[in-house]
Amino acid sequence: MRTLAGVEDEDKWLAEGIAGIQHNAFFMHRALDANNLREVLKYSALMLSELRTSKLSPQKYYDLYMRAFDQLRQLEIFFKDESRHGLPVVDLYELVQHAGNILPRMYLLCTVGSVYIKSKQAPSKDVLKDLVEMCRGVQHPIRGLFLRSYLAQVSRDKLPEIGSDYEGDANTVMDAVEFVLQNFTEMNKLWVRIQHQGPGTVREKQEKERNELRDLVGKNLHVLGQIEGVDLEMYKETVLPRVLEQVVNCKDKLAQYYLMECIIQVFPDEYHLQTLEALLAACTQLMPTVDTKIVLTQLMDRLSNYAASSPDVLHEFLQVEAFAKLSNAIGKVIDTQLEMPIVGAMTLFVSLLTFTLRVHPDRLDYVDQVLGACVVKLSSVPKLEDARAMKQVVALLSAPLEKYSDIVTALTLSNYPRVMDHLDDGTNKVMAMLIIQSIMKTDSCISTADKVEVLFELIKGLIKDLDETNAEELDEEDFQEEQNSVARLIHMLDNEEPEEMLKIICVVRRHLMTGGPRRLPFTVPPLVFSAVRLVRQLESQGGDIAGEDVPATPRKIFQILNQTIEVLSSVPCPELALRLYLQCAEAASDCDLEPVAYEFFTQAFILYEEEIADSKAQVTAIHLIVGTLQRINVFGIENRDTLTHKATGYSARLLKKPDQCRAVYACSHLFWVDDPDGIKDGERVLLCLRRALRIANAAQQMASATRGSSGPVTLFVEILNKYIYFFEKGNPHITPSDIQSLIELINNEMQSDNGNTTIHSDPFFTSTLRYIRFIKQKGGLMGERYDPIKL
Questions:
Q1: What is the pTM of this model?
Q2: Phi, psi (deg, nearest 5) at residue 672
Q3: pLDDT, tens digit, for every residue of 85-138?
Q4: 3-state SS class at 459
Q5: What count of other Cβ atoms lies within 10 Å of the Cβ of residue 248?
Q6: Residues 121-132: pLDDT tens digits?
Q7: What is the pLDDT of residue 443?
Q8: Considering Cα of 202, then 203, then 204, then 208, what sign does the dihedral take?
Q9: 550: left (phi > 0), else alpha (psi -120 to 50), else beta?
Q10: pLDDT tens for each residue of 221-267
Q11: pLDDT of the residue at 669
Q12: pLDDT tens-digit readout, 203-219
């Protein structure tokens, strides 16, 4: 019995044992050289007696055993040569059984038995049966385990299997299997009993040492897996039941886990598939402390790889109802192992889903069934807080996205959103991002309102405001990336049927309106542009678009857009809302809906008056309004006059004089539209340009009064270019004398500012004059019009 002696004591005992082996091996070798059989047996028995020690740990005992094993190989060579010892092998087999101690006797008997089998003077099965029975005489766990390991090693190439030199009668394969099974059974019992050696205070150390010996037992299963002639029927009827019986009955956590792992690894995949029920039944009978999830996961991985190896084997999975059996077994394991952590259950579900997607990718009901079982398990937990379990749930939800190139397939799984409901806010967002990325990667188009509804339920973590605490903690860059992803997703929603597309827009709008003030500026614009795209699609279809009985009409869509942008303007985000109103006004103009376009312009002006106070924002807004109004040709005279009057009025009231000037001369384009049917009011164009000139002159005077210098003449040059533009367009109210006067004004301003006669130092002005010279030199009708201008 081992004591609590220190490592130093064990090293001392090991050294003594090795010294004893070497001492007796020396005399044994001398006897071998002299061909003295009696002395050989005497010293070999003394040498092997060193293995009778009980003081060493398994690892130290293994070192000692290997020293003796090396000597036994030399001894076997001697026994093979009858001419050296002069004794028939049958008599030698009887002689070694007279050794005094059982352990040396059994080692010698196994060595001679190996020679006896090779001589073929007796059937292999008889000798092996004799040896495996006599080894029962050694019941000390460590000594017995190594003895039987030696027996397995010397007999490996002497089994009576089909095709070997020692093949026997019709039952020869069964004889080989019976020997290996019997040896395995006894070795496993001895291995399990090692845990009871020594005091319980060193149990953890003992388990570690026992784990190091597991391959001695597992080699038997490897041998079983390699015996020629073990067909499916024999495996199913004899081998597996005997092995599983030993696994279940040993009631040892370490042995059960390791042996189940060995069974899965050493036997063929097709055998596992045909004996799936027995394997799974054994899994449900393992000790509660055994990590069954790893065993089942390994089994499912092997079967998945087998299914992927060839399409021809898939029908076998259907025949044995593999999915149903695995699903039931996993359910039983989870129900019976009450102490299994939630991460273990989730790992099992991930493995089962992976198996299902690889073996039965077309069976969406199977996939949904796995997700449903996951929901049931998650529902039994108050709150999922384990980060590892959360990671497994994400893996579970990601698997269908990776398998099916069309995200729409995953949207048909009814339990998919129910699983997502159990994720925390952060993980829900991660999963929602994965879903969107999957759609982008596969360029999927979600084309029905029902599927859009399901999709937006799945990604609701991105489109709804979190509570205030989480909202404050959210990184701004991450938040923008999330919302931009949602915006890109909206552009992926499309349907050629206007009625269905309108339904999609309404579904998306309902979800987005719950997003709160931070999200709406990101998500409303893509929704508006999707709706505008639908309007243009309807407009291109011709006359049917105006009928009130048609479910999807531009007028109805514009009503929805008006309500949507109104929400955005109250966020507040007035600059963005104004841009969207103008986009809608232009779309309404294309549909020839003057009242609708006028209403959008009205809303834009109201926003400008009441919400936009920043001077830079006002400048941008005015130019947007003027540019949009200039492109629209749907308005009648009265409505257009009202809107242009408003635009010019706001332009003249900007804070900075240069901004006023540029906005006013931009308004000149409202009175001259270069289209066949466009307005061409030359007089009002001239009035705008003269007004802009007055403002520019006032700006120069203010600059001279405050800075002592009138500053650059850029504004005058810009106005000059507007004069030239309208002159070339044929405005009769713009004459060469107007252009001449303006050029002289600019020259005078530049001379007075520089205090010398150097002119044309402004590059813009220089380029303008160069253009006029070019036109004059070019000649022709336009050149003749420029002739009166003197430079």
A1: 0.77
A2: -145, 100
A3: 778 889 999 998 887 789 999 999 999 999 999 988 888 889 999 999 999 999
A4: coil
A5: 18
A6: 888 889 999 999
A7: 84
A8: positive
A9: beta
A10: 999 998 888 899 999 999 999 999 999 999 999 999 999 999 999 99
A11: 94
A12: 777 788 888 889 999 99
Q: Which of residues 565 and 198 earns the better pLDDT score?
A: 565
* Banded pLDDT at 546 (limits 50, 70, 90): very low
Burial class (CB in 10 A: 0-12, 13-18, 19+), 266: middle
**Alpha carbons within 13 A on the beta-carbon side of 657:** 15
Write the secondary structure of 389-451 as one string of H (helix), E (strand) and C (coil).
HHHHHHHHHHHHHHHCCCHHHHHCCCCHHHHHCCCCHHHHHHHHHHHHHHHHHHCCCECCHHH
Nearest residue to 258 via CA among 297, 217, 287:
217
What's the rounded Cα separation, in Å, for the pair 218 and 184?
8
- Structure tokens belonging to residue 375: 């929901």
Of the candidates 275, 330, 264, which has an alpha carbon nearest to the alpha carbon of residue 298? 264
80-85 long-range contacts (CB < 8 A, ≥24 apart) are 80/115, 80/118, 84/35, 85/35, 85/37, 85/40
User: Alpha carbon 523 to chain centroid distance?
Assistant: 25
Give the closest residue to 530 by CA, choosing from 514, 512, 543. 512
Poorest-confidence range of 565-569, 589-593, 642-646?
Answer: 565-569
Q: Tell me, what amino acid is at 370?
A: V
For the stretch 126-139, what's the b/e string if a residue is b when 16 or more beta carbons lie within 10 angstroms of its beta carbon? ebbeebbebbeebe
CA torsion 605-606-612-616 (nearest 10°) is 10
Q: How big is the CA angle at 438 (ends 403 and 515), to the nearest 5 degrees?
A: 135
pLDDT band at 21 (very low <50, low <70, confident <90, very high): very high
| Residue 471 CB neighbours (<10 A) | 12
Rounded to a whole number of angstroms, the distance between the first and last alpha carbons of the chain is 120
Q: Residue 564: is its pLDDT beyond 80? A: yes
b (16+ CB within 10 A) / e for 196-211: ebbeeebeeebeebbe
Q: From CA 242, how far away is CA 9, in angstroms rounded?
A: 41
Distances (CA, A) of 453 to 460, 469, 601: 10, 28, 33
Q: Positive or negative CA dihedral for 742, 747, 750, 752? A: negative
b (16+ CB within 10 A) / e for 768-779: bbeebeebbeee
Query: Rounded CA gap, 122 and 775, in Å?
Result: 121
pLDDT of residue 339: 80
pLDDT, tens only, 423-474: 888 888 889 999 999 888 888 888 899 989 989 988 988 988 655 445 555 6
Beta carbons of 270 and 232 less than 8 angstroms apart: yes
Residues 296, 348 contacting (CB under 8 angstroms)? yes
Residue closest to 530 by CA, chosen among 576, 587, 485, 572 = 587
Pair 428, 420: CB distance under 8 Å: yes
Q: Which amino acid is at 98?
A: H
Dihedral over Cα of 402, 404, 407, 412: its sign: negative
Residue by residue, what is the 3-state secondary structure of 689-749?
Answer: HHHHHHHHHHHHHHHHHHHCCCCCCHHHHHHHHHHHHHHHCCCCCCCHHHHHHHHHHHHHH
At 43, list the tokens. 């010293």
Give me 20's structure tokens.
């004893």
- Are 778 and 786 in contact by the 8 Å Cβ rule? The answer is no
d(CA 406, CA 424): 26
Residue reference for tokens 């994965």: 434
Instruction: Supply the pLDDT for residue 5.
Output: 47
42-54 mean pLDDT: 93
Identify the sign of the CA torsion 95, 98, 103, 104: negative
Return the structure tokens found at 56. Answer: 């060493």
Higher pLDDT, 441 or 198: 441
